[in-house]
Amino acid sequence: MGETTDRRARFLREAVAPYEGSDATAGHTKLSISLPTELVEAVRATATETGTSVSAVIAASLRASIEAAEQANIDRALELDAEENLAWANAYMPIAAKLWSEIEW
Questions:
Q1: d(Cα 40, Cα 3) in Å, to the nearest integer?
Q2: Burial class (CB in 10 A: 0-12, 13-18, 19+), 74
Q3: Among 7, 10, 31, 93, which is most exposed with the fewest C-beta within 10 angstroms?
Q4: Is the model's pLDDT at 5 over the cut of 80?
Q5: How far apart are CA 84 and CA 60, in angstroms?
Q6: 87 part of a folded domain
Q7: pLDDT tens-digit profile of 37-77?
Q8: Which is more confident, 15 or 90?
Q9: Distance in angstroms (rounded) separating the CA atoms of residues 43 and 49
């Protein structure tokens, strides 16, 4: 196995570790896919080193990918919310300043 494949296998191992041990009672569907050879080598190396199946490594990778995409959507929504909140605060600032200037201390 080449250095690139070793490095990819290590990164893959680290990325999928939190997602290993999924519910074994869940239904499974057989699927035939084609992947780049280099990626298959990294997946097989990870499966061997972690004592799991190739399917488990791929499933864990997919779960991690889906979770990352969902988190990115949440992060973007929070950014948009923060932008809207800032716009409201900036719009209210002159009103607040006027009210504060009229308060007798």
A1: 15
A2: exposed
A3: 31
A4: no
A5: 36
A6: yes
A7: 999 999 999 999 888 899 989 999 998 899 999 999 999 99
A8: 90
A9: 10
The answer to whether position 27 is within a domain reads no
The conformation of residue 102, written as its DSSP 8-state character, comes to: T
Radius of gyration of the chain (CA): 25
Alpha-carbon span 80 to 86, nearest angstrom = 10
**What length does the chain have?**
105
Query: Does the pLDDT at position 20 exceed 70?
Result: no
Determine the average pLDDT of the residues in 11-28: 69
Does residue 63 lie within any of the structural domains?
yes
Helix boundaries (H) for the chain: 3-16, 37-50, 54-101
Does the residue 25 lie in any domain? no
* Range of the structural domain that residue 74 is part of: 3-18+34-101
Phi, psi of 34 (to 5 degrees): -115, 130
Domain count for the chain: 1
